[in-house]
Design goal:
By secondary structure, the chain is mainly alpha-helical. The protein has helices at 2-17, 20-47, 58-82, 101-127, 130-138.
Length: 139
């Protein structure tokens, strides 16, 4: 959680500097990969039966990940809205880059799916024994 908090401003700065046309795809890929890397680290700890000390931090880590992803998506929405044509035109729902708020909604769903998998892993860690979790991680 502390690592994400320290790096959040830098990651948000990177999001802000990303060309709007690539922004939705970039944030989805970045968010999903951050979640997957975190899950890999958790599974590695499980595999080595060393998660007992770190398991108390999982909820904080997951909440920090959720906050970071929400902040990135807020930036995406802000940029898409800023490039949206004024209502009344034929392309009123699309931004000048071809992105819409519907694209943002789809991106949030995809990121939420990744977070749901991570949440499931966290619940499994909290409910399993060390031996069960080590076997689970080896699969």
């Amino acid at each position: 959680a502390a690592l994400l908090a320290r790096r959040q401003d830098g990651l948000l700065g990177l999001v802000c500097r990303t060309p709007v046309v690539l922004l939705v795809t970039f944030v989805v890929e970045l968010g999903q990969h951050l979640v997957y890397v975190w899950m890999y680290v958790v599974l590695d700890y499980l595999r080595r039966s060393k998660l007992d000390k770190a398991s108390a931090l999982l909820d904080d880590d997951l909440e920090a990940m959720k906050r970071l992803i929400a902040a990135m998506m807020q930036e995406v929405r802000r940029h898409v809205k800023a490039t949206t044509r004024t209502p009344g035109g034929p392309s009123a729902s699309k931004s000048l880059t071809g992105l819409s708020l519907g694209d943002c909604d789809d991106a949030e769903r995809r990121l939420q799916n990744a977070l749901n998998v991570a949440q499931g892993l966290t619940l499994k860690v909290h409910s399993g024994t060390t031996e069960e979790l080590a076997r689970y991680a080896h699969r």
